[in-house]
Design a protein that fits this description.
The protein is α/β, with parallel strands linked by helices and about 400 residues long. Helices cover about 40% and strands about 15% of the residues. Strands 1-9-8-7-6-2-3 form a seven-stranded mixed sheet, sandwiched between helices. The C terminus is likely disordered.
Length: about 400
């Protein structure tokens, strides 16, 4: 039995994903719902992180903090060991969540009315970072070829050529599909940004969860020339489930770009970090390699399990994934529209993220979080099969969570 098969009560920690009031209000679900929407993990935190946070909690001082040298040393060592990236301490800037950081980047490097380019379907906060700051959002749809997304380089080039486009936000690996871009693809992306003098912002926060046998390439490795015209957004939050500690960081080699973003951080009064954030990050990056490798393999097996089971429902086409704990499923042949899709998952007592959330070009798809114990995933899929079998009948079955805790 894997340690990741263990169930634990996430409601006890006020996890937003499991909040009964949120699930009822947002999705119309019952207290027995299984949430598969919010992108966090349903596994207990790695033991070394728990121990580090408990040790820090024992120090009865939760006042203003600073960033110690150990933060820079740990981040540099992790990136060299796991990804072959050679960083320098001066390039690093701790931030408090990747999404807020995207807002600060948009504020710092564009003026009101100027434009930011993204590929779609895309994580909706990319669009919010643009539109909430009175900038213009420009989208370049990804093309679906051989059941996977690819860039439309001709379209991207046309849009980057516009004088108002100042920033391109890249999602690598891609959310929602879990696509890991090749070095050749990323080199062409970098070359386009250089050609059109567009600042490249590479969100690589899902890179820690690349499946066994798949190689992740950072944009800097694929296109070294883009390094001084780009910002890397990195974080332990996805892989180690530290979203509540708001621990992320940016890496910026170019001093001018770095100073400009630092000024924007200061304008937004981004100061001392959470008391528990840096101890948690240091523990994750120094003591949790084995835990992470086991978790990634487990999630990859979860994906294979979901893909194989849903192959029995021909109207649900699971897009092959190479990373992450999010499954992107084409349901256009099953549902007439998104309203019917929502009714189906409400009947299943499962939450999900519908395709229209992803800015554009996601309609007819659904995203399901599979970062959970296999017994819970099995029950979620059992519910899908039960409702699929009775979908056109007047009454649907009622569900309770049947999975037993190890101590039961």
């Amino acid at each position: 039995m894997s340690q990741f098969d263990t169930l634990f009560d996430r409601k006890a920690g006020n996890a937003r994903k499991w909040a009964e009031s949120v699930l009822a209000k947002k999705f119309g679900l019952t207290p027995n719902a299984i949430p598969m929407d919010l992108a966090d993990l349903d596994f207990p935190v790695a033991p070394p992180i728990h121990d580090a946070v408990m040790a820090r909690a024992a120090v009865s001082d939760y006042s203003y903090t600073y960033i110690p040298d150990a933060f820079n040393e740990t981040v540099i060592a992790w990136n060299a060991r796991r990804f072959g990236l050679e960083l320098e301490a001066d390039w690093l800037k701790l931030s408090y969540g990747t999404v807020p950081t995207l807002h600060y980047i948009v504020q710092a490097f564009t003026a009101v009315g100027e434009s930011v380019l993204i590929n779609t379907p895309a994580y909706d906060p990319f669009a919010e970072a643009v539109e909430h700051n009175q900038r213009q959002l420009i989208t370049s749809p990804l093309k679906l070829e051989n059941d996977r997304y690819v860039f439309d380089f001709e379209d991207m080039a046309d849009k980057m050529a516009r004088p108002d486009v100042k920033v391109f936000i890249l999602c690598s690996p891609q959310n929602p599909s879990g696509r890991v871009w090749t070095a050749e693809e990323l080199e062409q992306v970098g070359d386009l940004c250089l050609q059109h003098h567009v600042l490249l912002v590479s969100d690589e926060i899902h890179r820690d969860i690349v499946y066994p046998g798949v190689h992740f390439t950072s944009i800097w490795q694929a296109c070294p020339a883009i390094r001084d015209h780009s910002i890397l957004c990195l974080s332990p939050n996805k892989a180690f489930n530290l979203g509540g500690l708001k621990t992320s960081y940016v890496v910026i080699p170019d001093a001018g770009i770095r100073d400009r973003l630092a000024q924007q951080f200061a304008a937004n009064s981004i100061t001392s970090p959470n008391s528990f954030a840096i101890p948690a990050l240091i523990a994750a990056y120094t003591k949790c390699d084995a835990w992470l490798d086991e978790m990634v393999a487990y999630v990859a097996d979860n994906f294979a399990y979901l893909r194989d089971r849903l192959a029995e429902i021909p109207e649900m086409q699971v897009m092959p994934a190479e990373s992450g704990f999010l499954a992107w499923i084409d349901v256009r042949r099953l549902f007439a529209d998104e309203a019917e899709l929502k009714r189906f998952f409400t009947a299943c007592d499962l939450s999900c993220v519908v395709g229209s959330y992803f800015v554009a070009d996601g309609e007819g798809f659904v995203r399901l979080n599979i970062g959970m114990p296999r017994p819970l995933l099995k029950e979620a899929l059992d519910r899908i099969f039960a409702i699929y079998a009775t979908w056109h009948q007047k009454e649907a079955p009622q569900f309770t969570i049947q999975v037993q805790h190890p101590d039961d």
